[in-house]
Structures are given as structure tokens and as C-alpha cells.
């Protein structure tokens, strides 16, 4: 039982001497603890209080023994201190009612035992909680429950809020920020859009998206040819176009899903709920046919009529067999075997990639996969000769052996979005339309003395020499702009590592061309092509994808006639559109015959991502060694800037990469604000439901 009568007598006696006039007996405390009522060892918590009187001075929260005689110096754990109320140093809390914050951040120790939270004002006890229960984290199947940091590794600190917050000075993150501050989101691509949704979900509504183009969605771009609408099916994707859904083990015939891709489906479910009642905004999925037996194959051999043989024909007819030729076959076989051994894509490893991409990433780091490209491994470790190396792995391949994409393309089932992937960002439009500034091309950031960020931008397409900058001020900025574009910005003095990450991260180019034909002629060939993608390099078309939707329908059809990456894309984009389309048309005639000429409409769309002013590249393609060097820099907030986007995460290129970065960045921002409970809510909602730790 608390000795409140003793404390009251003591305070009264001291008060008669003119001392401790602000002290309040604990049967009438000035500070009441609302939450938490229980804690876990080694965790981050929000402490919520309310004030029942004038609390002005130096406020300290501590944890320790439950006693009216407790002093600040005797408590077991100092949580944090700040000035509140009418104290001159409380001006920093102007956003809080009467300059008295009511939420604080508490990092519990690993060896915490039962006790009470205590509040001290200028060293005197003015409030104490009931005794808190210490709840041990539940073990899973007899094992210690792991955090995301345990799974993903030490450069994924955002998963572990305790580790992230411990890097900061205790009092710097002690007071939780209010939610009415202003937040800027630079870029209206998928990471920026999901970030806005997440902020809204935790009660932060004072955000604004600055988007340099006239649309949202970023590199998600479906083209609807000849003035058609999504339901007409006359479209193809100039950006991402499919999602790996599940993988079948060829030995056991067991099928298991790609768990990381579940984030896309979860997002669609959330948006469909937000847009219930509006059928035009519903996001629906249907099958994507990635592989089809009758797609043409890149081979020097031709059918008697001069057209190209199909995948099935090449597999079954020895006359079409075209084995690779090496100058030293034994050396080439040894090099290929060495690469396979190093990558170690066993059935167990493949399943790990599909079921837990974070665990796969940690394993890849431990295996040294990010330390070598295929070429550097063959040359520097295996000591293969230069010619063999170039035969086995083209010498321009500089990226690390992080094989998640290899595993993706082992998928036995793929899906895409009905009506085109642009339906996904379109579902955000009703919820962001009043908080997006379109045609706002950012050219710089400035960190101000009042700890805010000024964002400088000009209207896209404005006269560059004389148009003055517009300036928007934000408390924090979530920056999803491609790093390529930031190379020309004026920015705060970021750390050396972050500055190098911005300056030196490489982007690959891509060129995609969609063409509409009078009929779906490919479905009426002697060997009908029902969906599927193939790769043709002579002539140089790259990937060609036949549509997986509206199979055997009448009327026109649209196919992805060419998808080139990197250097080939740069060369193709140097041509005029007409020159390039003439090349594509003649190439398709060579593949399929005169039926191409007969069905040519002259309706097409070409996207050269490297020449796109809003992106200056298609996707991140880091040199080996860059990823695990630069990634930790993106996971730290500098000058109130949080970096998100597919470049600022551990996988790249895919929509999942952008979405994962948005969750990480939002959690990182919430932790910076001291909103620990909200950070936990976001992690639980967007990560823990589908990733097993």
C-alpha cells in the first residue's frame, strides 16, 4: 500500500518552509499515466499521460520501484526528460496543448522487472503509475520469436524499432511529435502513393504529394491504343506488367506462393474496400501467360516457308537444335558449374526465396552474393580466361548475384491486373486528388534553422531561364524521386555515404513498344500462339509478349512487339519512332510472314525510359558491392529526409520493391516522430501478416 499520507505530511511540512511548492501528493497527482499497463523486455513503447494541474518545469519520466519515496536518481531506468508548460525552454512544444506533451517514447531494457512509471517535476515526484506487468514475448514452436531485423540483417534497422531508436540521443526521441505537422511526399509513384495511404491510416492527414508529371503511378504505365478504354483490351504495359504468383516444385509437385508479392494483393484489397461501391475503381487480377509452347524461338533455322519455329518445335525436332558453341567447351562447362555452385539455387533455397525474401536476402549477404558479379567471380575467384568468361556471362553484366529475379522467373503461375496495371494507381485517385500538386518539378531541398525542409520546384515545362522557384515548407519529406534526377539538385549536406549513394547508383534503360493490329492474327496461325513471352535477339526485338487477355476474341489485338533493356534500349531509342517501328514491323514479318503486313494499323506507343524527363531510367541496376554499401544510408533519416522508392530497398525493379520501401520509410518516419504505437500498427498491418519471422 502506498504511503501517500506520509508523503502528504512531508510535502506539507516542506511547503510551510517555502520549499517544493509545486509538489503534489500522489493521491492527487499532477501527472497521471494512461498507458501502457504492460511491457515487454527490449521493446519500444509509447507512454501516454494526462495533466491534472499546472505542470511547469523540467519533467522527467523514469521506471523503477513503486514507492512514494522514489527519487529520480534512485529509479532503475531513466526514460527521458524535457521542459514543459510555462518553462522558457518549453517553447519547442508549441504544437502541444499548453506546451505539455502527452506521449513519450520508452525503450525498455532487456532485463526489465515489474515496477512503476514515475513522473518528476524539477526533481519532485508528481505522478506514478500502477504496477506494470512484464510480459515475455511468446516463443514460436519452442523457439525464440525473431524480429524482422533477425531475419533481414543489420542493414534493415527499420524492422527493429528499438535498434533504430537506440541510435538517437534518449531525450531527442523522448517526446512524441504531434500529427498536425506538414509532410511532403516527393513523387506520386507507387511508393509515394502507399506512403500517403499509410500516413492517413495512422491519423496523419497533413501531407502533400509533389508530382512532376500530370499523372500518378510513376513507372506504372499502361497504354490504351487508338483511343480505347481498359475494357476494350487494346492495351499493353510500358512499365511493369506481371506478378509471379506461385512456384511448383518439379520433384515433389508441391506448389507454394511468392509471399512478398502478397503485399500487392493486400494493397488491392485495401483499395477495393476504400472504393467499395465504385466498380470502375476496383482492382481485379487475372492470369498472365508467361510461357506458351507456340511462341517463336531465337534460332538460325527456319521452317520450309521461311517463318520461325516455335518453342515446342525446337524442343522436339533435332533439325532445329542450336547448341551453344564455346572455344573451349571444358572450360565453359567448368565456369557454368562454378557459377551454379556459388549461387546454390537448390530446391530448398528456391523455396526460401519464394517464402521469405528477407531471409533470402540475409543468406545472400552471408554467402557473399553481393560481392561479385558473374564476370568478377569467374575472373577473380575461378581465374577463368577472359574469352570463356565473356562466352559464359556477357562482360557487360555488372550486377551482383542476388538471384531473386531468377527465382521469380521460375514461377509456374503469374497474374496481372484486369484492364492494365494503371488501374492500381487509378484506385488511389479519389483519396489523393486534393493533396497532389501536379507538374511540380523539384530542383532542390534546403534544411532550415527551425528544423524544417524547404522544397524548391518549378512548373514542369515552364520557361527555365526566368521562371522563379516555388517554395513549399515541410517538417519531414518522404523522397521517392529517382536518384538519377537528384544528381542535379541542390541538397542539404548529407553524409558522405548517402551522397555517394545518390551520385553513383546506376539506372538501366528500357524501351518498350506496344503495337495494335487489325486482328489477333497470332492466335490463328497454323501453330496458334495463346499468350506468352519470348526473347528474340536477331533481329533485335528483345522480349515479345502476346496478350494473355481477351483470348480468341474478334476485332483488333495489341501485343508488346519489343522490350529492350540497357544498351540495346539506348541504341533503339536513338532512332526516331518511325525508324524504330519500321524495323520492328520488318522483324515481325520475318518471324510471322506477310500476315503482319496485312494486319498493320500504324497504331503504336513507344516508351524510352532513359529519355523520360520524370525518371531518367527504367529501374535501379546497382554494381556489385554497391547494394550492401549504400543500403544502410537509405535506412537513416538525414535532415528530416526519408528516402523511399525501388532504389532505396533490397530488391529492385518490381512493384513490390516500391511498396516495401514505402512501408519501411513510413515506419522510419513514425519512429523519428516518436509514434511507436503507430509504427507497430503499420508493421503489423503491412508486413507481419504475410511474412513469417
UniProtKB/TrEMBL annotation:
<dbReference type="InterPro" id="IPR002937">
    <property type="entry name" value="Amino_oxidase"/>
</dbReference>
<dbReference type="GO" id="GO:0009063">
    <property type="term" value="P:amino acid catabolic process"/>
</dbReference>
<protein>
    <submittedName>
        <fullName>Amino-acid oxidase</fullName>
    </submittedName>
</protein>
<dbReference type="Pfam" id="PF01593">
    <property type="entry name" value="Amino_oxidase"/>
</dbReference>
<feature type="signal peptide">
    <location>
        <begin position="1"/>
        <end position="23"/>
    </location>
</feature>
<dbReference type="GO" id="GO:0001716">
    <property type="term" value="F:L-amino-acid oxidase activity"/>
</dbReference>
<dbReference type="InterPro" id="IPR036188">
    <property type="entry name" value="FAD/NAD-bd_sf"/>
</dbReference>
<feature type="domain" description="Amine oxidase">
    <location>
        <begin position="190"/>
        <end position="669"/>
    </location>
</feature>
<keyword id="KW-0732">Signal</keyword>
<dbReference type="InterPro" id="IPR050281">
    <property type="entry name" value="Flavin_monoamine_oxidase"/>
</dbReference>
Amino acid at each position: 500500500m502506498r504511503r501517500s499520507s506520509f508523503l502528504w505530511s512531508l510535502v506539507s511540512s516542506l511547503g510551510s518552509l517555502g520549499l517544493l511548492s509545486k509538489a503534489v501528493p500522489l493521491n492527487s497527482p499532477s501527472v497521471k499515466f494512461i498507458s501502457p499497463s504492460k511491457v515487454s523486455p527490449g521493446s519500444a513503447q509509447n507512454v501516454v499521460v494526462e495533466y491534472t494541474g499546472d505542470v511547469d518545469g523540467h519533467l522527467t519520466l523514469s521506471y523503477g520501484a513503486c514507492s512514494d519515496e522514489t527519487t529520480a536518481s534512485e529509479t532503475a531506468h531513466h526514460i527521458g526528460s524535457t521542459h514543459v508548460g510555462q518553462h522558457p525552454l518549453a517553447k519547442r512544444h508549441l504544437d502541444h496543448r499548453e506546451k505539455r506533451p502527452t506521449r513519450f517514447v520508452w525503450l525498455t531494457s532487456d532485463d526489465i522487472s515489474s515496477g512503476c512509471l514515475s513522473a518528476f517535476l524539477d526533481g519532485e515526484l508528481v505522478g506514478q503509475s500502477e504496477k506494470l506487468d512484464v510480459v515475455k514475448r511468446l516463443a514460436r514452436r519452442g523457439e525464440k520469436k525473431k524480429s524482422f531485423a533477425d531475419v533481414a540483417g543489420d542493414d534493415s534497422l527499420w524492422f527493429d524499432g528499438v535498434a533504430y531508436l537506440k541510435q538517437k540521443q534518449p531525450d531527442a526521441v523522448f517526446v512524441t511529435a504531434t500529427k498536425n505537422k506538414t509532410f511532403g511526399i516527393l513523387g506520386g509513384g507507387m511508393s509515394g502513393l502507399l506512403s500517403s495511404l499509410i500516413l492517413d491510416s495512422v491519423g496523419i492527414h497533413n501531407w502533400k504529394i509533389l508530382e512532376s508529371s500530370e499523372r500518378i503511378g510513376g513507372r506504372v504505365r499502361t497504354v490504351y491504343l487508338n483511343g480505347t478504354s481498359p475494357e476494350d483490351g487494346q492495351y499493353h504495359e510500358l512499365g511493369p506488367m506481371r506478378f509471379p504468383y506461385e512456384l511448383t516444385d518439379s520433384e515433389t509437385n508441391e506448389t507454394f506462393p511468392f509471399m512478398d508479392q502478397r503485399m500487392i494483393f493486400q494493397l488491392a484489397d485495401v483499395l477495393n474496400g476504400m472504393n467499395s461501391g465504385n466498380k470502375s475503381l476496383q482492382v481485379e487480377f487475372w492470369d498472365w501467360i508467361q510461357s506458351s509452347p507456340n511462341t517463336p524461338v531465337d534460332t538460325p533455322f527456319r521452317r520450309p516457308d521461311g517463318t520461325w519455329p516455335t518453342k515446342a518445335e525446337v524442343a522436339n525436332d533435332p533439325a532445329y537444335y542450336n547448341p551453344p558453341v564455346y572455344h573451349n567447351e571444358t572450360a565453359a562447362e567448368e565456369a557454368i558449374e562454378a557459377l551454379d555452385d556459388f549461387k546454390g539455387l537448390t530446391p530448398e533455397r528456391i523455396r526460401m526465396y519464394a517464402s521469405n525474401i528477407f531471409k533470402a536476402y540475409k543468406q545472400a549477404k552471408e554467402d557473399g552474393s553481393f560481392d561479385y558479379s558473374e564476370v568478377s567471380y569467374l575472373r577473380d575467384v575461378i581465374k577463368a580466361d577472359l574469352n570463356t568468361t565473356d562466352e559464359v556471362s556477357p562482360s557487360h553484366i555488372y550486377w551482383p548475384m542476388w538471384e531473386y529475379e531468377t527465382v521469380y522467373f521460375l514461377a509456374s503461375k503469374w497474374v496481372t491486373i484486369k484492364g492494365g496495371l494503371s488501374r492500381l494507381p487509378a484506385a488511389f485517385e479519389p483519396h489523393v486528388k486534393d493533396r497532389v500538386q501536379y507538374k511540380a518539378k523539384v530542383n532542390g531541398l534546403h534544411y532550415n534553422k527551425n528544423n524544417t525542409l524547404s522544397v524548391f520546384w518549378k512548373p514542369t515545362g515552364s520557361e527555365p531561364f526566368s521562371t522563379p522557384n516555388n517554395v513549399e515548407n515541410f517538417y519531414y519529406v518522404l523522397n521517392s524521386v529517382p536518384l538519377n534526377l537528384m544528381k542535379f539538385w541542390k541538397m542539404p549536406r548529407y553524409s558522405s555515404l548517402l551522397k555517394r549513394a545518390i551520385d553513383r547508383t546506376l539506372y538501366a534503360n528500357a524501351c518498350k513498344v506496344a503495337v495494335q493490329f487489325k486482328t489477333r492474327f497470332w492466335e490463328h496461325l497454323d501453330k496458334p500462339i495463346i499468350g506468352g513471352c519470348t526473347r528474340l535477339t536477331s533481329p533485335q526485338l528483345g522480349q515479345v509478349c502476346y496478350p494473355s487477355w481477351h483470348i480468341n476474341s474478334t476485332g483488333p489485338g495489341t501485343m508488346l512487339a519489343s522490350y529492350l533493356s540497357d544498351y540495346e534500349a539506348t541504341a533503339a531509342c536513338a532512332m526516331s519512332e518511325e525508324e524504330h517501328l519500321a524495323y520492328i514491323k520488318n522483324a515481325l514479318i520475318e518471324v510471322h510472314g506477310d500476315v503482319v503486313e496485312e494486319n498493320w494499323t500504324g497504331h503504336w506507343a513507344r516508351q524510352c525510359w532513359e529519355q523520360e524527363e520524370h525518371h531518367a531510367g527504367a529501374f535501379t541496376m546497382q554494381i556489385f558491392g554497391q547494394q550492401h554499401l549504400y543500403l544502410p544510408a537509405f535506412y537513416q533519416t538525414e535532415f528530416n529526409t526519408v528516402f523511399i522508392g525501388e532504389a532505396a530497398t533490397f530488391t529492385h525493379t518490381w512493384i513490390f520493391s516500391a511498396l516495401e520501401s514505402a512501408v519501411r520509410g513510413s515506419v522510419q518516419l513514425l519512429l523519428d516522430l516518436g509514434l511507436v504505437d503507430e509504427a507497430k500498427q503499420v508493421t503489423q498491418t503491412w508486413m507481419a501478416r504475410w511474412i513469417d519471422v
